[in-house]
Amino acid sequence: AAHKNGIKVHIWFETFYVGNINPKYNSKSILAQKPTWANITKKNFDSQEPVPSLSEHNGYFLDPANPDVQAFLLELLDEIITQYKPDGINLDYIRYPQSIAAKFSSYDLSNWGYTQYARTEFQQEYGIDPVELVYSDANWTYWDNYRRGKVTDFVSKVNNLIRNKNIMLTAVIFPDRQKALETKQQDWKTWSKCGYIDGFTPLLLTTDSETAALMIKDVNNNKSPDTALYAGLFSTFMNAGNDDLLRQIHVARPLNSKGIILFDYAHL
Fold it and tell me: Do the Cβ atoms of 158 and 75 come closer than 8 Å?
């Protein structure tokens, strides 16, 4: 119907996020079917149940390190592409759940990725269980790179899946690259540098147009010129008024923004 009316459709794909309903109360949840696929924190590494991300509406996430998780998601994407022939795929939640900032003493306890699969694979390669690592350890960098690499590897696989199919691949990212690396293991600069992605739709969570401009500049400074930027304005989620949204649109236009994304209909 959209194509008949000259409208392109990009599928919003909530990659590693599975919703905020406890799998115990939803037998159809993928985590009810596959509980070992759940991402968990260091604090709760020995939990026998999926762990919610308290700072993200108690949402539950999949483990990017698990190859069965990646295969399952690629199968879903292949089904979408084959059956519905969209114009684009927009990867959201293409990251680990949010941790607190590294400046806090309990930073490592709030980190994610301490699944049995990831711990075993990491220990086989580096000779140490990541549960034993703290942020001040020299080997912590290896643990960061391990997790970031798993997300990047999945983006690469999606790129291979849609290549030569005339489908645009974009991703929701968080501006402030260092913070995205530190708190979400999201290495979007590498995706751009390697040509895995056609465009970014950065989530600009601010009511202030000057702050939005700084965020856009951060993305522009760290992405490849071949990666398009579509400013993702989410001021309505922050209870901003119409004038605030219009100001952000005006500041985004001259900053090499190829277009505007309005997050989202529920708050607009």
Answer: no
The pTM of this model reads 0.96
Residue with tokens 């979408």: 80
Rounded to the nearest 5 degrees, what angle is found at the Cα of 213, between the Cα atoms of 210 and 218?
130
Peptide bond into 264 cis (omega under 30): yes
| Separation CA 60–CA 63 (nearest Å) | 10
Provide the token pair at 134. Answer: 């703290």
**pLDDT computed for residue 237 by the predictor:** 85
Contact (Cβ atoms closer than 8 angstroms) between residue 118 and residue 33? no
Q: What share of the chain is helix, strand, coil (3-state, %, to 5)?
A: 45, 15, 45
Distance CA 37, CA 8 (A): 34
Structure tokens at 93: 């939640």
Burial of 192-215, coded b for 16+ CB within 10 Å and e otherwise, reads beeebbbbbbbbbbbbbbeebbeb
Residue type, 177: R
Taking the chain (268 residues) in consecutive chunks of 10 residues, what is each chunk's mean pLDDT? 96 97 94 97 95 95 98 98 97 98 97 98 98 97 98 98 96 96 98 98 95 97 97 90 93 94 85
- The C-alpha atoms of residue 199 and residue 245 are separated, in whole angstroms, by 22
Rounded Cα–Cα distance for residues 53 and 24 (Å):
16
Neighbours of 135 (CB within 10 A): 16
pLDDT at 128: 97
Q: Is the dihedral of CA 212, 97, 154, 87 positive or negative?
A: negative
Phi-psi domain of 113 (left: phi exceeds 0; alpha: psi -120 through 50; beta: other)? left
User: Which helix (H) or strand (E) segment is 121 a member of?
Assistant: helix 116-126
- Strand segments, DSSP code E, in the chain are 10-14, 88-92, 168-171, 199-200, 203-204, 228-233, 259-262
